[in-house]
Design a protein that fits this description.
Chain B: Keywords: ATP-binding, DNA damage, DNA repair, DNA-binding, Helicase, Hydrolase, Isomerase, Nucleotide-binding. Chain B: It holds the Pfam family WHD_Lhr. Chain B: This is ATP-dependent Lhr-like helicase. Chain B: InterPro entries: ATP-dep_Helicase, DEAD/DEAH_box_helicase_dom, DEXH_lig_assoc, Helicase_ATP-bd, Helicase_C-like, Lhr-like, Lhr-like_DEAD/DEAH_assoc, Lhr_WH_dom. By secondary structure, chain A is an alpha/beta fold. Chain A has a single domain, classed as 4-Layer Sandwich (Purple Acid Phosphatase, chain A, domain 2), CATH 3.60.21. In chain A, the strands form 2 sheets. In chain A, strands 8, 9, 10, 11, 12, 13, 14, 15 and 16 form a 9-stranded mixed β-sheet that branches. Chain A is globular, with a radius of gyration of 17 Å. Chain A starts with a strand and ends in a 5-residue tail after the last strand. About 0% of the residues of chain B have low confidence. In chain B, about 45% of the residues are buried. In chain B, helix 6 packs parallel to helix 8. Chain B has 5 domains: about 200 residues, Rossmann fold, CATH 3.40.50.300; about 160 residues, Rossmann fold (3-Layer(aba) Sandwich), CATH 3.40.50.300; about 80 residues; about 50 residues, no CATH class; about 200 residues, no CATH class. In chain B, the strands form 5 sheets. In chain B, strands 3-4-2-5-6-1-7 form a 7-stranded parallel β-sheet, with helices on both faces. The chains are: A alpha/beta, B alpha/beta. Chains A and B meet through strand 1, helix 1, helix 2, strand 12 and strand 14 of A and helix 27 and helix 30 of B.
């Protein structure tokens, strides 16, 4: 499978073009911020009736990635559901689809700020998880190292020969790795925003998703 | 025959006036259900429209609202109030007149609903909002007349469609309501009458004497205009001379940015310190009002302005109109010229200042068209469904409704007269349930049908959100500009995209002042004064003006001449130079120029086919270029040419025009392009799918909001026949022509393509670099750009990644 291989905290990881992370030697696939059930939550709270297809679309993409790398473990890095009620209200076909994806592998739901409690879906529910040298949690802890997280939906923006380009991206330095949001209805925060950039050292890289993953120095963006 | 009461006759006589024949005819026809007056500016149009109301109100017996006046411009509403209050005061009539716009305070607005004046002056959006209240029937009780001013400006706009839908509602509340339309000279009065009247009522048309032909000339300057460039800076000394020779001059520009730059340089050259002001829609309300007042008081010798002054404002003693930049549209030119000399039967005087040499050619063509009274026509269309969806939401805010009543009401609007039951049901279903093939929102419907069959809002609290989203104008997202510090004075607004290019220390022009960008705070651009420094230029609000197709055909005929004795020598030389280094376009052949510039490769296709056709051509040619691996990045279309840029040069244009290859995969290419996504966003906001303030949340960097392109892509994949997708296709087609017509065009020029490859841009292509409305192409070019950046930036930073 295409992707951008790099080493982080001694582990060889692969940033996939769709915005998922794969760890070949452990057989671990990581996706963050799926926000399943987002359109339903917006409608429930009296907002717009957005096209109710984002959960299907997100699972379709996840299905493709799982199909491509056949992981032993899948980690959903938090904010997997737009809120707990959205998680509880998933249509039966969606629950069955999730069960199918979970079959034959370990499945971990890391808690996020949108989905802080356990849900009656298969898989284990954890606040954080350590595998080998790496720790997986939803929101980065500034003092942490060896940390893989999500939450911020980082996005890179740049202008090349007069053309504006914006792509969801991974951001990585020697201490931490932040994943882009994998859900279909997710926006992004500029990765040069102090909220994100402040967590990283000067030599951090942004790995841009797209047809091919492209690495750019974070310091050269914005 | 309705005679003019003595108090009115005396008033006219006291001023030494006598009523115009069309004013008396309007009074005579006062009881007609619909009445359209076509009169030139200065023809006493406003008085003609209000005369029947003033006469009816003169005895002081009418209770409540009598006449509603709608104008497309806020400024016009307050201007008309001033003009109306004077005769009412002078005649001592017991008539209360008030205006109501987005600028009116909320306390006053509340009071107006409970205790309306006799005459209320408002805008289409404010009227739509008024009809959304549950007490609308009480507010409008007794309403007898509605006057729609400058109705020609509303004809081909969604604001006009929304207004007519609101009038259909008013007509149900007040069945005897009589409609009056006031219009500038138009090519097809019947079309305006069709718009105005309650379908199928007849509409009487009153034609005023059109007056003498205007006196329009080109401004002679010592310095020739540049090849390219849009500002008209070269003409400043000559413009100042003209300002000195006249009492009051209006100097029109096509864009706000150009008005700012011109004003800045005019001021620097203004050695006599003539009082000159600037007025455009991006300035703060305080600033606009200050200029408007100074103008009314006769304190200004000139105003540099844009379309915000375009519509019939009757201010002071304007005796000269200067148009900087080609007028692009003959109808607009004639209306602008009407601003000068508001005395009836005196010719208006105007000067054209072309900003570059191509515009000299355009101006000559436009002048010829004015002399021949050849006003541009526009295509008539059916009422748009996004506006209809918003109307249903507004109706639901006002209270429960029966769907058959609403449909009957909507069909009294001319443009919706042939709306089918199925089309209406689609719109109602979309508003109520989202209208998706996947019925996901049964629990959370927006509208519910009650047991008695009436429709109502599921949650009455939704009215707030619906009212906040009323309107059909799609402004580019803007940020307010203020001086830094506590209570800093507001200066105006700039486009978000422009603000994003600023770094602290950068300078730009706003309100004629050079200011220094200090930073962004709470979504306000903070600036400090920075006199004297040369500004970085504001690009905000590049208002788009398309030349009419007729005008581009005139231009093509001019270019085919052997020589141009009618043009100034510098422009004739410029055309000869184009002929020397490349060619001039010829009818029946297709000229294509290719050249490099600024690390991109450009291709210019001169079709002279009108903007819609050139836009479609841009979509088709970039599709083929993508397939041929030429990495196109974007294009811009004008009425006479399409300019395409990309990463690779075009060596042979022949394969681009292969009809079979063009047809293949065309649908998916068209469905995925940026024109569709842009159209979708606008319609989705109007139809109520996306909140208008959604964009504002994006500015604050909240990652919870996402681009409307994602919604479009999702619908395209899962629900391609959803109403919003059908609306998007219908709307996009208004700006495109169908493939068959392009096919015809390609067939007719087949084999007669003149491809010229050059090492730099040509005289004729230079003006295209100024065009707004660029369409990006989604394709392989982006990835190649990123690959290049990756190689360059990583090496530059001394990083080769975090390699394995």
């Amino acid at each position: 499978m295409d992707g951008y291989d790099f080493t982080f905290s001694g582990a060889t990881l692969r940033a996939l073009p769709q915005g998922a992370l794969y760890w070949p030697c452990e057989g671990v696939l990581v996706v963050s911020d799926l926000h399943l059930g987002k359109s339903e939550r917006i409608a429930r709270r009296g907002g717009s009736l957005l096209p109710p297809y984002e959960t299907i679309e997100t699972l379709r993409r996840l299905d493709t990635v799982i199909e491509g790398c056949g992981p032993k473990t899948v980690i959903c890095l938090g904010d997997s559901f737009d809120d707990l009620a959205a998680g509880q209200d998933l249509p039966r076909e969606i629950c069955e689809w999730l069960l199918r994806l979970q079959a034959g592998r370990r499945w971990v739901w890391i808690e996020g700020n949108h989905d802080p409690g356990p849900l009656a879906l298969g898989g284990s529910h954890l606040a954080e998880l350590t595998i080998a040298t790496l720790i997986f949690r939803h929101i980065a802890v500034p003092s942490a190292t060896h940390e893989v997280s999500g939450h911020y939906h980082p996005k890179a923006r740049l202008t090349l020969r007069g053309r504006h380009i914006a792509r969801p991206c991974f951001v990585v330095d020697e201490n931490r790795l932040i994943l882009p949001a994998f859900g279909a209805y997710t926006g992004g925060m500029d990765c040069t925003d102090p909220v994100i950039a402040g967590l990283f050292r000067p030599k951090a890289l942004a790995l841009l998703t797209g047809p091919q993953v492209r690495a750019l120095p974070l310091a050269k963006l914005g | 025959m309705n005679a003019l009461p003595p108090v009115f006759e005396n008033w006219f006589a006291r001023h030494g006036w006598s009523p115009h024949p069309h004013q008396l005819e309007m009074l005579d026809q006062a009881m007609a259900p619909a009445l359209l007056l076509i009169a030139p500016t200065g023809g006493g149009k406003t008085m003609a429209g209000f005369l029947p109301s003033l006469v009816d109100l003169a005895d002081g017996t009418h209770e409540g609202l009598h006449t509603l006046y709608i104008s497309p411009l806020k400024a016009l509403a307050s201007d008309i109030r001033r003009n109306l209050e004077r005769p009412v005061a002078e005649m001592g009539l017991p008539i209360r007149i008030e205006d109501r716009t987005g600028d009116t305070s909320s306390a006053r607005k509340r009071r107006q609903r409970a205790d309306p004046p006799h005459i209320l002056l408002t805008t289409p959006e404010s009227l739509a909002l008024l009809t959304s209240y549950e007490d609308a029937a009480r507010t409008f009780a007794g309403l007898k007349r509605v006057i729609v001013d400058e109705i020609h400006a509303l004809e081909e706009s969604k604001r006009g469609d929304q207004l007519m839908l609101a009038l259909s509602r008013l007509q149900s509340l007040c069945p005897d309501l009589r409609r009056v339309g006031l219009s500038a000279t138009v090519d097809d009065p019947q079309a305006i009458a069709h718009l105005l009247t309650r379908h199928p009522d007849p509409c009487r048309i009153v034609q005023a004497d059109p007056g003498p032909n205007p006196d329009i000339r080109m401004l002679e300057t010592d310095t020739p205009p540049p090849w390219s460039g849009g500002g008209g800076r070269y003409a400043i000394p000559a413009v100042l001379e003209e300002v000195k020779k006249h009492n009051t001059t209006l100097i029109f520009h096509n864009t706000r940015a150009q008005a700012e730059i011109f004003f800045h340089h005019l001021w620097l050259a203004n050695d006599d310190a003539l009082p000159i002001g600037i007025h455009h829609g991006s300035l703060s309300r305080e600033q606009r009002e200050r200029v408007e007042q100074a103008m009314v008081d006769g304190h200004l010798r000139a105003i540099v302005c844009t379309g915000s002054l375009d519509l019939g404002i009757d201010w002071g003693d304007v005796d000269l109109v200067i148009q900087v930049g080609a007028p692009k549209n003959v109808k607009r030119l004639v209306q602008r010229i009407g601003r000068a000399n508001h005395r009836y039967n005196a010719p208006s005087k105007a000067l054209l200042v072309p900003a570059n040499r191509f515009e000299i050619v355009e101006c000559h063509a436009a002048l010829a068209a004015v002399r021949e009274h050849d006003l541009d026509g526009e295509t008539r269309t059916r009422g748009p469904k996004d506006v209809l969806c918003q109307h249903i939401l507004i109706r639901a805010c006002a209270g429960p409704f029966k769907e058959t009543d609403l449909l009957a009401e909507i069909r009294t609007v001319g443009k919706y007269a042939d709306l089918t039951r199925a089309e209406f049901d689609d719109c109602l279903d979309f508003v109520a349930t989202g209208g998706y093939a996947l019925r996901a929102y049964d629990k959370w419907q927006r509208l519910m049908q009650r047991p008695d069959g009436l429709w109502q809002l599921r949650d009455p609290r939704a009215t707030r959100q619906i009212r906040m989203n009323i309107g059909t104008i799609m402004d580019p997202e803007t940020l307010k500009v203020r001086y830094k510090g506590r209570g800093g004075a507001p200066l105006g607004e700039i486009e978000e995209g422009f603000a994003a290019t600023l770094t602290p220390g950068d300078t730009f022009l706003i309100g004629g002042q050079v200011v220094r960008y200090e930073g962004l705070r709470e979504m306000t651009v903070q600036v400090t004064r920075n006199p004297g420094k040369e500004p970085k230029i504001a690009t905000f609000n590049g208002t788009k003006f398309a030349t009419s197709t007729q005008l581009s055909q005139r231009i093509l005929r001019m270019l085919e001449q052997d020589s141009w004795p009618e043009l100034p020598p510098h422009t004739a030389e410029w055309l000869h130079l184009q002929r020397e280094v490349s060619q001039l376009p010829k009818a029946g052949r297709l000229l294509i120029e290719s050249f490099p510039r600024d690390s991109r490769h450009y291709t210019c296709v001169y079709g002279f086919a009108g903007r819609n056709a050139q836009q479609t051509l841009g979509l088709l040619l970039t599709k083929r270029m993508e397939e041929l691996g030429l990495h196109p990045m974007g294009f811009v279309a004008t009425d006479y040419a399409t300019l395409i840029w990309g990463l690779d040069p075009l060596c042979d244009p022949e394969p681009l025009f292969d009809i079979t290859a063009l047809r293949e995969g065309l649908d998916s290419w068209l469905a995925g392009n940026a024109v569709m996504k842009r159209t979708f966003k606008a319609s989705a906001v109007i139809a109520g799918l996306i909140d208008r303030n959604y964009a504002g949340q994006r500015k604050s960097g909240r990652q919870a909001t996402f681009s409307s392109d994602i919604l479009y892509d999702t619908l395209l994949r899962y629900d391609p026949d959803h109403l919003m997708m059908r609306i998007t296709r219908e709307e996009a087609e208004r700006g495109l022509v169908d493939f068959a017509r392009i096919e015809e065009m390609i067939a007719s020029i087949k084999g007669r393509i003149d491809h010229v490859t050059l090492d730099r841009l040509t005289p004729l292509s230079a003006p295209l670099f100024l065009e707004h409305g660029r369409t990006p192409v989604e394709g392989a070019a982006q990835d190649r750009l990123l690959a290049e950046a990756e190689a360059a930036l990583m090496a530059d930073a001394g990083l080769d990644g975090l390699p394995v």
